[in-house]
Please model this.
Amino acid sequence: MADAKMIVKRLIEEPWKGNWDVIDEYAAPGYVGHDSAEPEPHRGPAGLRANFEKYIAAFPDGRITVDDQVAEGNKVATRWTGRGTHTGEIAGIAPTGKEVTVTGFTISRLEGGRVAEEWTTWDTLGMLVQLGAIPEPAHA
Amino acid sequence: MGEPGMSSAFAHSHHMPCAECGASVAADQQGDHVCDPERRLEYRLFLLRDEVAGFDEGLRGYLDSAQGRFAQWLAARDRRSEPRS
Ligand SMILES: [Zn+2]
Model:
């Protein structure tokens, strides 16, 4: 069985490269994903895929890179950075052509070699500032 | 309430897109950033995409109009009457 950190890393990074197989392989049938940017959790592998597709449609060249991971028991904590060019609509914001960089944290709970539940918080405000949807603070 | 602009003090971002080329630049590297000319051109064209798309449509509309059709007829006639060298 693949190492827990590797399972989580692949599930976070690979869909951005079009490798959707990792979702079938590593997301549990009862997967639940809690995301700071979403009012409702993503449910099941299909819900997880739909969430990826939403962001990939807005940032087709986007990539997520895992920066650090810590594992304890059946949980893995991951610090990641996402980067991509905004060429599709997101959150009602028309494409700007701007490249954005955001950071986030995900805690993943594994069950039998698959990810069963995840809690993610990421820099949604930073994305909105970089896209110009929220004004940048004036520099003194 | 705080002073004006207080709320935006929380809206700091470690990266900001370059205004010229759209590339994501870290706050501590903004002084060193040099635009990639190709990226700058792509970014400009992306920003002008509606106008670029509109140009083609405008040209098609003009060529279909009475004025456009006459201009095409005139150009074809001028080409035919050019002296051969
Ligand atoms: Zn630049």
